[in-house]
Protein 1
Amino acid sequence: MTPLVIDTDPGVDDAYAIVLAARHAHADLRAVTAVFGNVDLPTTTANARRLLGMLGRGDVPLGLGAERPLIHPVSRRAADVHGDDGLGGVAERFGPLGPEPAGRALDVIADVLETSPEPVVLAAIGPLTDVALLLATRPDLAERIGRLVVMGGSIGIGGNVSAGAEFNVWSDPEAARRVLVEERVPTTLVPLDLTHAVTVDRGWLETLAASGPVGEALAATRTVYGRGEALGVDRVPIHDAVALLEAIEPGTLATVPLEVEVDTSLGPARGMVLADRRGRTSPGRTVEVALPEGTDLDGVRDALARCLRDDMVTRPGG
């Protein structure tokens, strides 16, 4: 079993990721923490509560995270992609509401790390503000994080919020730089390069919808979400679920160690992740970057379907 904490900004693809983690046979979901991002903090928190309630996972503590970036205020949300409610305009299909937040995100995560007999995997699938604050204020807990899995960045295909920046990193580049460049926690970065290669089509979503109420609710988000992602084909990416699969099943995605930098300027490149792919031996810190080359893309889609479909659930509370 993989002991797991998720820091998230639900968000449609975050909803897929939470369902995956709550249902995966090898995931021991210890906590979920909500951060600002796709929508504001009250909405991401409510959405996390809806998902935990719908999944029957009231046993999972929920933490209340950062409501804004470390330094500069956020200039836009992602309602055009995720809907005003964060769940593709169909938030009412998810629920009932799970328990109220158990406390601040930093305290909830710290409690899991301090009490776990083994290192914990921390999956960060929203802006990295909470993770940066945790590592800055509790550096003693860094060694209790077995691995940090981050959904964010774009290495070579362009961004989804600007010409070069991916939304999660762009939302708080200063936090992202601290986590990806300055810290030393073992980290796997799952960028758009990989998640845009693992899109799902109408047939995949129709099969998911037919599997039961949770699958139906997830698939119903596609009307707004698919239009907002605008990839030019009748397919949608579920970025965060791909990252969660790697968090739970290490080695699912093919990775290469790369030294990265995050642009924190206030110019057009703000939020870009720059990866050095020249193959040089570098004394700097490297992170494992997941790329399509070497990854079984169809195998990832199949694994996601097995974990997300209601008719495949074997765990209690699913």
Protein 2
Amino acid sequence: MPEGHSVHRIARQFARSFTGPPVAVSSPQGRFTAGAARLDGHAIVQSRAVGKQMFLEFDHHLWLRVHLGMYGAWDFAGDIAVDPVSPGERGGRAAKVVGANEDSPWSIGAPRRTRLRMAESEQLQPEINVWPPEPIGQVRVRLLTPVAVADLRGPTVCEVQTIEEVDATIARLGPDPLVDPDGEGRFVENVRRRNVAIGQLLMDQEVVAGIGNVYRAELLFRARLDPYTPGKDLPTDVARALWRDWAYLLKLGVETGQMLTMDGLEGEDLERAKASRDDRHWVYHRTGEPCRVCGTPIAMAVMAGRNLYWCPKDQV
């Protein structure tokens, strides 16, 4: 499932490539035909991400709300400028960048007529030869401008909302550090008033917005916290430190396009971490492997419907 940094990057992609001109909105799959008709022909004036939810405002005061869920993804194509990210993370074939002296397909600001898939990770795919490209797969909604197209597949939520409905949706979410830089107090209160394991609370989007399975495991290890500690038992300073670490990791993820949760890496260790997910996390997805700090086998259990990873020795 895409976590908060991915959704913020998707919102930035829309802001960069889709605001301004009128947008042709359709539903090739047919499941969003009525909603598409309400937005068709209007311009996007704003894109917003809050936690795992994204909102596109159109010039007639209606919004498109999207939650990608477990299987959703956006495919972008056309003359789009792509945020930089490690080549090892993108995968797929690199497209040739259009522009003088631009040899790297990862350069920021370089226009290209290609495909870019954005979900949990990002994949730069081959250049396209026909404009507009044919929809691939079950496309719930297509947003098309003269130079760019965005196709949405497999979302949990895709609906048109009024500003009142958008405000009500956001009001139900916990704080997001990139939206609520002063949300530390609300996060601490949300955690410390509940007799629920902190490993479960971090996955509750009404407690804090944007954290998913990877960030949950890594934040708890970085804090050396037992995932089963009730939120009400966390000292205030520990809860504050969790929020601040989440703000740091989220900003880093948005800037780099990666969930790189191990600090202090240098040289070959850093290059391996950039190229492979297996080398960039402390505990996530490392069941039975030795803890990188103490050597104890990493444990795994199901919590809040997802696999939880932690070190039984260091996280006590």
Protein 3
Amino acid sequence: MNIKSKEDFWVFYMNHHSKPSTRKWHFIGTLMSIIFFLCSIIFTWWFLFLVPLSAYGFSMYSHLFIEGSFPVTIGYPFWSLYCDFKLFWFMITGKMDREMKRLGKRPVLQLF
């Protein structure tokens, strides 16, 4: 795959996060990692061990059992982290549906 920009990777990333449940699990993992990072600053540095465990744990679950794909973090760790936070920001600001439409993706009907 020939990725030349953040926007190219964003499109690639969103193709691997097409189901709303996958994005929700990523949101939870990112939120938990932010909370654990703040706890490591406020309370004790031991919480730093939970930062990657929560982020990767939730995303691995969503990819393997919901999306049916393998996480793109393995090949692109930094761009994937950037897109995780971008996804988180779009979801927290309510702009995810608009972004999915911009990318030409239709919402996927899911029960869970």
Protein 4
Amino acid sequence: MSSLIVGTDGLSRPSWAAQDPLMRDYYDTEWGMPIRDEQGLFERVSLEAFQSGLSWATILRKRDSFRAAFSQFDPELVAKFTDADIERLMEDAGIVRNKRKILATINNAKATLQLREKGGLVEFVWGFKPIDTPQPETLEEIPTQSPESVALSKALKKEGFSFVGPTTMFALMEAIGIVDTHLVGSHRRGSSGVWA
């Protein structure tokens, strides 16, 4: 059975992207497109960490608030956050107020700056691009992690990052185009230009 739904516009999307206009727009314009700038990638790493245990729709609805709260995810600014900033964030109803995830974001900003000495976050993460990408026809066929996401998770932890488990890193790899898990038959399959 296909996991694709044909919308009123005639385009095929997975069920998770077919109903909610916000999720549909995200799917149609952002998800799976390459992110190759440090700030953009740091934002995605941060938001994937906040998403852990929650739905992506929840994070997406709060994304503007997250950006405002975390200085547009500029790692140089976030790395300088103080105890006062942590208190401010814990009072901010516009974001997910999880102290461990807030501390991880600040910690990961510092680790991002350190990684510049080894070529930078973008080169580091994209270095885990696999030789090929899944060809799922149903949502059930989409893996939740891969040997590359396990390796990326371990490598980032070694560099001082936290909240970067293998499943979270696979979601990151999907979101930024390192793997293409758009369902075969989706109007977005192959749209990243990374995979033919």
